[in-house]
UniProtKB/TrEMBL annotation:
SUPFAM superfamilies named in the record: PRC-barrel domain
Organismal lineage: Bacteria, Pseudomonadati, Pseudomonadota, Alphaproteobacteria, Rhodobacterales
InterPro entries: PRC-brl_dom, PRC_barrel-like_sf
Gene3D superfamilies noted in UniProt: PRC-barrel domain
PRC-barrel domain: residues covered: 18-69
Coiled coil: none
Protein name stated in the entry: PRC-barrel domain-containing protein
């Protein structure tokens, strides 16, 4: 996926309505998870990414700072993110519990 034409999100877009269900891609552009929900807003935002599983079953929720993600909109306006983390690194994080 060529991200060079995608528009970075503004801090004001760091909210549940914009980010929920956004796919997250690793450095090799493979999908490594999906944002399930958001804690905070703006500069102090953290997101819960569901990693692994199939169709939402068996996924492990992990908490990641928004600063670890490069969030953007593609040409169709769909929100997605990229990170330097691998799926294995995210899976190694502690499970997030509410």
């Amino acid at each position: 996926m060529d991200h060079s034409k995608h528009t970075p999100l503004q801090r004001s877009d760091f909210n549940e309505a914009t980010l929920a269900n956004a796919p997250i891609y690793g450095a090799d552009d493979s999908k490594i998870g999906t944002i399930s929900h958001v804690h905070g807003a703006g500069a102090v935002t953290e997101v819960v990414i569901d990693v692994g599983g199939f169709l939402g079953i068996g996924a492990k929720p992990v908490l990641v700072s928004i600063d670890q993600l490069n969030l953007m909109r593609d040409e169709d306006g769909e929100v997605h993110g990229r990170t330097a983390w691998t799926k294995e690194q995210l899976k190694a994080l502690p499970e997030h519990r509410h």
